[in-house]
Amino acid sequence: MTANIEARKLSVKQQRALEVLLVGGTDEQAAQAAQVSRQTISKWRNHHPGFADALALARDEMLSRTSARLHAATTIAVRALEEVAKDVRNPSARVSAAKAIIEFSQKALELEELEVRLTALEERLAEQKAHGGR
User: How many helices and strands in the chain, by DSSP H and E?
Assistant: First the structure.
C-alpha cells in the first residue's frame, strides 16, 4: 500500500499536517497548517494508527526515492573524480581526487564484506531456529 493510498484514509486536516511533517516541519507548524492544536498533532502521532502509519510509510517512500537519486548520481560523481584525477594541470586536485577514490573504494569494500558476513549470520540464525534453537 503506498503512502498516497494510506493518506486518503486521513481527514483533510490530517493530510495537511502530514504534508508539513514530511518536509521537515515541526508539530507546531503542522498544527498551524491543519488549523488544530499541537496537542492534536501529538495525539494523531501517538494514538491514530492511520496517521502514524501514513507518516511512516510516506517517510520510507521519500527515503527510498532519495536513495535511488543518490545512487544514480554516484556514477556522475565517480566520473568527475576520475576526470580530476587524470588532469595533469592540477597535481593537488589529482592527489585529492585519487585519495577520495581510494577512500570511497575501501568503504564500499568494507560494506560489501559486512553485508556478506551479516547474511551468513542471518542464515545461521535461521538454521538454528529451524532446528529448535540448537
Answer: 6, 0
State the cell numbers at 98.
Answer: 585519487
Give me the count of residues in the chain. Answer: 134
Three-state secondary-structure class, residue 88: coil
CB atoms within 10 A of CB 3: 19
For 111, the grid coordinates are: 560494506
84 close to 90: Cβ distance less than 8 angstroms: yes
Specify the pTM: 0.56
How many angstroms separate the CA atoms of 131 and 134, rounded? 6
Per-residue model confidence (pLDDT) at position 9: 82
pLDDT in tens, 85-111: 999 999 999 999 999 999 999 999 999
